[in-house]
Amino acid sequence: MTEPTPPTDPSRRSPTSRARSVVARLAGAADEQGRLVLWLLRWIALGIGVGVLAGLSSALFLKMLEWSTRNFAEHGWLLYLLPVGGLAMGCLYHYTGGRAIEGNVLVIDEIHEPRTGIPRRMAPLVLISTVATNLFGGSAGREGTAIQMSASLTDSAARLLHLSRAERRILLVAGISAGFGAVFGVPLAGAVFGLEVQSIGRVRYEALVPSLTGALVGDLIVRGLGIHHTPTPQLGPVDLDAGLILKIALAGLVFGLVSAVFIEAVHLVKRIGARLTGWPPARPVIGGVLVILLTLAVGNRHYNGLSIPLAVDALAGNDPGLQVFALKLVFTAVTLGFGFYGGEVTPLLVIGSTLGAALATILGVPIALLAAIGYVAVFAGAANTPLACTVMAVELFGRQALEPAAVGCVIAYVFSSHRSIYGSQRLAAAKGGWTGPLGHAVREHRSRRDPEPTTDEGAPPG
Questions:
Q1: Residue 439: what pLDDT?
Q2: φ, ψ dihedrals at 51, nearest 5°
Q3: In the 8-state DSSP scheme, what is residue 136?
Q4: Which end of the chain has fewer CB atoms at under 10 Å, N or C?
Q5: How remote is the C-alpha of 64 from its chain's centroid?
Q6: In 3D, which of 328, 381, 324 has the Cα closest to residue 357?
Q7: Which residue blocks in 75-142 are alpha helix, DSSP H?
Q8: CATH assignment of 39-224?
Q9: Could you tell me which residues come within 8 angstroms of residue 1 by beta carbon, excluding any fewer than 6 positions away?
Q10: Nearest 5°: CA angle at 379, between 376 and 383?
Q11: How far apart, in Å, do the first and last CA atoms of the chain sit?
Q12: Which residues are paired to 144 by β-bridges?
């Protein structure tokens, strides 16, 4: 039998052989680094394209939203056209919307299971409808619109470039990041939001480069076009001792529960609307009448539209009372639940800041501090995005907000349970107490808790 040849001792190889080995290793490393450079440049270029689309569309939207808000404030009679606007919006989506009716649900579904793509009509439909909602006094926000416009335009460009399904998915994540970062002026939070929002418990790092690039470019374009975001105060030094952390954690629990109440309230109103009429365009008519009645009952118009002044007042350190957040929640649930279009995030920011200001008085915490934490924490619970919302707090309120916001956002995330304003979010990692299967959409978990069939047609995006 032939004896096996012993391995060559590297120390006995000739200098020429060792040199060749070193050269080969260096060539392999250089080749790998070269491919990484090309990969990086390609995704930066694609991210820039996404950012341009998101920035231009968000700038147009913000300008139109400013126009609609100003006109509603100057012409009070527009409120009484809300049912008419709702009917027109409902018919527009019902007869021409196609899959665009699904809104943010479709965007996230296309990330997980790419099918026919996002229809091009989604961008103009959601732009017109959201502007109309705010023009006539409905209570809705703006992030859903920015995300859908960015995603629709991005997906159209991806198909035009004949990108693969995997590449389309990555660009859709970047589109979410760019739309969110551009419309709120928080590019870093926008980048993290897109990576985090598509699944509960999973951050999609493969989209990191185009998401960060798109969010930065989108924000630069919006600012470069002279669009200004609502200024937020910078927090002063925070003496974060054990007592304050405990109080913030307690407030975070409340923020999480209010997130859950908001989600359940919107779904409850959806079910009521579906029972009242089987024709989806009629639901916004009912919702419009209810918003008018609510406005007359309250005696002011603080809760119509975006309600940004309520948040500004709370962040300035004024206690609005507990009724303010509750009324904004009711106005928004009625508006979105009965089929008006717009985002949930801006109302959640208002709800969170006013709730935080009211809780601060009860807990003995500086009002501006807890209002700032509530501003991001209620949203963190409702969207299951504690990382993005913590980054958002730092971008809006300064470095001093980091630790307090992290505590509030994480606790709110836990106590919102397995709910979400985005029903197509996948449950990738369970929160405490979950014994069911993983990997399914949040809406499937809801269907097990609430077996009564409902229709999503005419429902708000997300």
A1: 83
A2: -65, -40
A3: T
A4: N
A5: 20
A6: 324
A7: 82-96, 104-112, 122-135
A8: 1.10.3080.10
A9: none
A10: 135
A11: 73
A12: none
223-279 pLDDT tens trace: 999 999 999 999 999 999 999 999 999 999 999 999 999 999 999 999 999 999 999
How crowded is residue 243: how many other Cβ atoms within 10 Å of its Cβ?
11
Query: Residues 362-372: pLDDT tens digits?
Result: 999 999 999 99
Residues 6+ apart with CB under 8 A from 5: none
Q: Which residues contact 429 (CB under 8 A, 6 or more apart)?
A: 200, 201, 202, 438
What are the tens digits of pLDDT across the range 185-205? 999 999 999 999 999 999 999
Spatial separation of the C-alpha atoms in residues 443 and 285, rounded to whole Å: 26
pLDDT at 116: 83
H or E element that contains 67: helix 15-74
Q: The domain 242-449 belongs to what CATH superfamily?
A: Clc chloride channel (1.10.3080.10)
CA distance 187 to 194: 11
Q: Are 390 and 406 in contact (CB under 8 A)?
A: yes
Distance (Å, whole) CA 451 – CA 444: 10
Q: Which two tokens stand for residue 260?
A: 């859950």
Q: At 277, is the secondary structure helix, strand, or coil?
A: coil
Measured CA to CA in angstroms, residue 217 lies from 191, 332, 345 at distances of 11, 31, 22
Going from N- to C-terminal start, the domains of the chain cover 39-224, 242-449
Q: 242-449: same fold as 39-224?
A: yes
Two structure tokens written together for 339: 């089929």
Q: What pLDDT score does 236 carry?
A: 92
Note whether 53 and 222 are within 8 A (CB): no
* Calpha distance 344→361 (Å, rounded): 26
- Give the helix/strand (H/E) hosting 140: none
pTM: 0.92
Distance CA 334, CA 344 (A): 12
Q: What is the dihedral of CA 207, 208, 211, 213, to 10 degrees?
A: -130
Measured at the alpha carbon of residue 192, what is the angle toward residues 189 and 194, in degrees to the nearest 5? 110
- Is it the case that residue 457 has pLDDT exceeding 60? no
